[in-house]
Design goal:
Layout (H helix, E strand, L loop, with lengths): L5 E5 L4 H15 L5 E4 L5 E5 L4 H14 L7 E6 L2 E4 L2 H11 L10 E8 L6 H9 L13 E8 L2 E7 L5 E2 L8
Parallel strand pairs: 6-7
Antiparallel strand pairs: 1-3, 1-4, 2-3, 4-9, 5-8, 7-8
Length: about 180
């Protein structure tokens, strides 16, 4: 199972260019030796940075304020808090053990589940199993916090986010 704390998407067949962009931006952020890896899923790469992943997102936002066209190939960067096996009982345990340190009592929340190459996990069933133990109000449209679960075959990334913690970019084309 791979260890990573950033999940990065690019357009298909541009993963190599996205890896170069990611390596360079992590170097600018202060990580001299990030580990950047391919995944078996087209358009996705992972990175393990020695820096705090959510702080990296903020540093990248500051860089992009000065140079909004810095990224040509990276489409989205998601910080990841926990990596585990893609087993519902393990995912549930990690979320239940950690959500209270992130979701305040008055916060609304949403659970986002992305499955890749693991259709045997029932989406609604897993979301319901996790949500039933969280007493906060659910808001699917405009939550204060997001519990995001990224199932990548046998590996799973779990993260507790504010909506602003995800960096998302519009796809650039030659017509832009």
């Amino acid at each position: 199972m791979k260890n990573f704390n950033l999940l990065v998407s690019s357009s298909r067949y541009n993963e190599t260019n996205a890896k170069a962009e990611l390596w360079f931006i992590l170097l600018i952020c202060g990580d001299k030796y990030p580990i950047i890896s391919d995944l078996e899923f087209s358009g996705l790469i992972t990175a393990l940075t020695s820096l705090n992943a959510k702080e990296v997102i903020q540093k990248i936002k500051n860089i992009l304020n000065n140079d909004p066209n810095f990224f040509q190939y990276i489409l989205k960067i998601i910080p990841i808090d926990f990596v585990c096996q893609s087993q519902p009982s393990i995912i549930k345990q990690i979320v239940q053990q950690n959500y209270k340190s992130f979701i305040d009592k008055n916060d609304t929340f949403r659970i986002t589940l992305k499955r890749r190459n693991h259709e045997s996990i029932n989406r609604n069933n897993l979301i319901n199993i996790i949500a039933e133990k969280i007493n906060n109000k659910v808001d699917l449209e405009n939550p204060n916090k997001i519990i995001r679960i990224e199932i990548l075959g046998n590996s799973c990334g779990i993260t507790f986010l504010k909506p602003s913690d995800i960096l998302k970019f519009k796809c650039k084309t030659s017509l832009d």
